[in-house]
């Protein structure tokens, strides 16, 4: 499968995706749907934590392997897409459609990013010359 998204690009999208998901209830207009609003905040917080702890250029603590981060993105994406039915707000068109988009985006980010781990600190890509 062609995976056009680099690790660096993935990090940029994560850090722009987080505030968008957190603000979605206000931006799209479903703040009256308390469960969906809370779930947006929880998803944004989850994405922020996994991003901060991912072993990548944009990670702060760098303990989670990038491949695990990608797997989490796919799982969270599938969860978000099913959330309107799991949590009973599928009748709210704005909330439901927002979660379908959030889910699709998470699935695409997880599946279309190249699973290349960041080199260890001090590692080189070429053997040292003598």
Number of domains: 1
Strand percentage: under 5%
Task: Return the average pLDDT rounded to an integer.
Answer: 92
Low-confidence stretches: none
| Secondary-structure class | mainly alpha
Distance between the termini: 39 Å
Q: Indicate the percent of residues in helices.
A: 55-70%
Question: Count of helical segments?
Answer: 4
User: What is the succession of H and E elements?
Assistant: HHHH
Shape: elongated
The number of E-state strands comes to 0
- How would a crystallographer describe the biggest sheet? none
Q: What is the radius of gyration computed over CA atoms, rounded to a whole number of angstroms?
A: 17 Å
Can you walk through the features of this model?
With about 130 residues, the chain is mainly α. The chain has one domain (about 5-110). Helices cover about 65% and strands about 0% of the residues. The chain contains four helices and no strands. The chain has helices at about 5-30, 35-50, 65-85, 95-110. α1 runs antiparallel to α2 (about 35-50) and α2 packs antiparallel against α3 (about 65-85). The longest helix has 23 residues, at about 5-30. The N and C termini lie far apart (about 40 Å). The model has no long low-confidence stretch (mean pLDDT about 90).
Descriptive labels:
4 helices, 130 residues, 64% helix
Describe the secondary-structure layout.
Blueprint: H1 7-29, H2 34-52, H3 66-86, H4 93-112
Helix pairs in contact: 1-2, 1-4, 2-3, 3-4
Summarize the structure.
By secondary structure, this protein is mainly α.
């Amino acid at each position: 499968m062609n995976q056009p998204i680099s690790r660096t690009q993935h990090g940029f999208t994560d850090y722009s995706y987080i505030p968008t998901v957190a603000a979605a209830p206000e931006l799209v207009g479903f703040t009256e749907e308390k469960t969906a609003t809370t779930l947006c905040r929880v998803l944004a917080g989850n994405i922020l934590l996994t991003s901060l702890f991912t072993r990548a250029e944009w990670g702060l603590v760098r303990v989670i392997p990038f491949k695990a981060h990608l797997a989490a993105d796919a799982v969270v994406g599938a969860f978000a897409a099913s959330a309107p039915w799991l949590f009973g707000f599928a009748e709210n068109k704005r909330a439901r459609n927002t979660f379908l988009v959030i889910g699709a985006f998470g699935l695409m980010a997880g599946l279309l990013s190249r699973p290349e781990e960041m080199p260890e600190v001090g590692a080189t890509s070429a053997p040292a010359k003598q």
